[in-house]
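Q: Got a minute? One more chain.
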Amino acid sequence: GEAGYTPGLFHLFTHAFFKALLFLAAGSVIHAVHTNNMSEMGGLRKMMPLTFVTFAIGSAALSGIPPLAGFWSKDEIISTAFREGNYFVWAIALVTAILTAFYMMRVVLLTFFGAYRGHEHPHESPPSMTAPLALLAGLSVVVGFLGAPQLNAVFADWVHFGEEAHAEPFSYGFAAVSIIGALLGLFVGYRLYRGWRERDPVRRLGPFYTLLERKYYLDDVYLKGIVRPLQYPIPRAVDWTNQRVLDGAVNAAGWATKKLSLGVDVVDKRAVDGAVNGVAFGAGATGGLLRYIQSGNVQRYAVFLFVGVAILAIAITRF
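A: Always. Here it is, folded:
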């Protein structure tokens, strides 16, 4: 993107660890409480300590807290965008980082702190589920150093294999801005969600909350601008096509098949049956004629023999 493909690939690389960790840890929680509704969770840090610790590490990494993996990759993207003069991209990235820290604090507080609000009896997941969490949590702590300029940016050497790679010098100023942004998001999230409330605190934002809740009204635009205008014309067109075209084609095929079967019936009765009956009649007539020859009269046999020999002799003399 705007910040270069090396920081982007590095961010994707680090995400492979802590995002996978967060998904698996969420699965561990859902497996224990049998719901994905955070309003029915709370207080799970005491019941699921290993899941809590690993989820907290993944949340901190995603929020960009040093020295976890997400800090190094996210800081590199934000600082590179600023160095390249893409100030709008830099501002959007920084605001996104703040919001990320905010909602991760919200998830952690609503899931693992306060009183348990569910109806199940949760307990820690089995080792088959927690062992991958521990492994990914450890990797989420250390893999970020592969892109650290202080360690010669090993990841950049991998990306530019066979080429000479140069890592941007580490800027404590940019790092401070990223850290302050992450801490700001965490602080606001903590202040709003440190105690469970039936009413979501962000509803205080009023119209802005409504705008976000309605997803910028994109669903309404899609429903009213595209779905409903096409809700009746398309089914009617499909129904007309079905009745006039498809049913017409099926009926025409049935009519043609019926006419063809009638023609086949006529041919069968007149031609095939006629030929069979004609052969039978001819065989019967021939048998009737030959029956007179087989009379048992020796004199008649002699006459037929003489006539046959005479005919054969005439044929030989002619040809």
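A: Residues 2-205 form one domain.
Q: Perfect, thanks.
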